[in-house]
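[audit] Reproducing an earlier prediction to check determinism. Same input, same settings, fresh worker. If the C-alpha cells differ from the archived copy the diff job will pick it up downstream; this log only records the rerun itself.
[audit] input (112 residues):
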Amino acid sequence: MSENFGQRVRRLREAKQLGLRETAKKLDISAAYLSRIETSEERTPPAEDVIQKLADLLSDEFDELMRLAGRIPSDVKEYITKEGMPQFLRTAKERKLTAKQLEEMLEAKKRK
C-alpha cells in the first residue's frame, strides 16, 4: 500500500523527531493546518512554496511531494501547456512510455 501526501509528511516529520508545532512554525503555517494535512482532512493541497519548504525541512524530493499532493510544479506546468505538448504527452501515455523510456529516446537521438 502506498502512502498519501499527509501520511508521508507525518512519517518523515516523526522520523526526524520534529514536533507538530515545531514543524508548523518552521513552515510558517499553523499547527492545526499541518495536522489537517497529515490526517488528510485538508481538502486543498498546500501551496507550492509550502511543499518546497516541507521537502527541504524533511529532506524529501520536492517533485514526489508535489505528485502525492496532486499538484504540478509551476515550472513544469508552464512547459506542458506549450503548443503541441498536451498531444505529445497523450501519445506517450497511449504508448505506455515511462519517463525513463522517454529519457532514453532523447539520449539516443542526441547521440545520432
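[audit] rerun output stored. Observation attached for the diff report: The chain has a mean pLDDT of 95.
[audit] end
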